Every structure is written in C-alpha cells, then in structure tokens.
Amino acid sequence: MEVLRQKQQEEKARLQELFEKNLKDQREQLTNMMEANFEEQRKDREAALARQNTMEDMIDMMKSSLESRDREIQLQREQMDNLIATLKEQNIEVVQQMKDYDESLAKEKAAKAALEERRQKIEEEKARIEEEKKNKEREMEVLRQKQQEEKARLQELFEKNLKDQREQLTNMMEA
User: Fold this and answer.
1) What DSSP element (H or E) covers 7?
2) b/e string for 68-80 if b means 16 or more Cβ within 10 A?
3) Stated pTM of the model
4) pLDDT (tens digit, 0 to 9) for every residue of the chain, 175 residues total?
C-alpha cells in the first residue's frame, strides 16, 4: 500500500508537474498572444495617431496657408484702397476741370441759343419791317395813282372850267 501510495503520489506529482507545465505553457502562449495583440493594437494606435497627427498637421498647414492667404488678400485690399485713394486725389483736378468745361460748355450753348433766338427775332422784325415797307410802298403807289388820277381829273376839270370860262368870256365878248 505504501508503494501504491507512493505511486499515487508520484503520479499526482507528475500530473501536478504536467498540469503546471501546461498551465505555464498556456500562460506563456496567452501572454505571447496578448503581447502580440497589444503590439498590434499599439501599432494600430500609433498608425491612427500618426494619421491623426498627419491630418492635424495638414489642417494646421491649411490653416496657416489660409491665414497667410488672408493676410495677403488683406494687404492687397489695403494696397488697392490706397491706390484708389491716390487715383481719386490725382483725378479730382481732372474731374473739376471736366465739370468746369461742362459748365462753360453749357453756358456757351445757352449764350448761343440766346444769340440765335435774338438773331431770329431780329430776322422776324426785319421781315416784318420789310413787309410793312412793301405795304407802305403799295399804299404810296396806290396813293400816287389816285393822286395822278385826281390830278388828271382836276386838270381835266380845270381845263374844262377854263374852256367853259373862255367860252363864257368869248360869249360875253361877243354879246
């Protein structure tokens, strides 16, 4: 019995050893698997972090580029505003000259229009006077004709009266 017990204890010790060895192997395998899994997860995290960092870097670069472009646009806008202000100042005199020219041109046109209106009135007055002159000449001609007719009638009458008086005188002298 003692031998049996010893065999059982040996068997138990051997099984215990085998169990511990298997347990150790399984732990080692599990540890290796976990380490491999952790390593893979770490690499994935690092890759994700690298991608995130790369994306953040790209975003930062884009932000920086946009900020730079915004500053450049603002600078160009300021330069353009300054140029426009300078051009306005330079052209104020030209614009004033143009206004003065327009005003003098308008005054000249008004003066020409007034002169033309006056000339037209003078022409109309001249035509009216000419018409009156012609009418007066016609009237004078009519009067001359009437006067000549009257003169001729009076002459005739005078001659008739003279003839009648002569006849009367002749008749009185004969009588």
Assistant:
1) helix 2-174
2) eeeeeeeeeeeee
3) 0.36
4) 687 778 888 888 888 888 888 888 888 888 888 888 888 888 888 887 777 777 777 888 888 888 888 899 899 999 999 988 888 888 788 778 888 888 999 999 999 999 999 999 999 999 999 999 999 999 999 999 998 888 888 888 888 888 888 888 888 887 6
